[in-house]
């Protein structure tokens, strides 16, 4: 029997017990951020370098005070970047601020209304960053061909959207996601669109290696409680995927067979 506590997620040669990755934005204050992240059980925590102080502004509160790097793997991201040039510059800044840290989340957005990924600029940035020695986890569309190219390029994880960032719409196109998963040579993690625990469970049941979320927790009425729910949802979905669901049938099959019963 598989022990889920030993079922590690491996990214860039590092093994993590938790398959839930969380963000740090949109909470009411840093104290709530810290409590929610702790309740989630996440080990990888992403933050927007262009919007968050992690030491570049010494007179402002430092987010690393509530998510210390000796306890969490910090995943700097390029949220707010709309060109490959901006994204590459932001990743290099993160590497300087975090003492040579190589693991980054690349996202290059197409516009401010949809926050849909600009795949052309994403491909450009990914190629530069991989050659520059970064371990790139990349936010992208749910296009299987683009996912294949990013994987072949050397990205360490592919992160297709389930729905638009912050939409809470859940997995809008499971069919494309299944194709991406079938062809995957690196971990595939759903990023964006999760709204509630069942969305996270479905992503894991499909075979995703993990789920990254922020708004679904931060915008909940009780973020800490929702963080706990997401922790359990990811575990439940992973367990169901590994267990293998029963086949779907059009008609009933009795749980207690009628053969041999007394008439």
UniProtKB/TrEMBL annotation:
Pathway the protein takes part in: Cofactor biosynthesis; thiamine diphosphate biosynthesis
Enzyme class: transferase
Catalysed reactions listed for this entry: [ThiS sulfur-carrier protein]-C-terminal-Gly-aminoethanethioate + 2-iminoacetate + 1-deoxy-D-xylulose 5-phosphate = [ThiS sulfur-carrier protein]-C-terminal Gly-Gly + 2-[(2R,5Z)-2-carboxy-4-methylthiazol-5(2H)-ylidene]ethyl phosphate + 2 H2O + H(+)
CDD domains: ThiG
Keyword line: Schiff base, Thiamine biosynthesis, Transferase
EC number(s) per entry: 2.8.1.10
Positions of the Thiazole synthase ThiG domain: 11-257
Any one GO molecular function term: thiazole synthase activity
Transmembrane among keywords: no
Keyword Signal in annotation: no
Gene3D superfamilies for the chain: Aldolase class I
InterPro entries: Aldolase_TIM, Thiazole_synthase_ThiG, ThiG
Function: Catalyzes the rearrangement of 1-deoxy-D-xylulose 5-phosphate (DXP) to produce the thiazole phosphate moiety of thiamine. Sulfur is provided by the thiocarboxylate moiety of the carrier protein ThiS. In vitro, sulfur can be provided by H(2)S.
Name of the protein: thiazole synthase
Lineage of the organism: unclassified sequences, metagenomes, ecological metagenomes
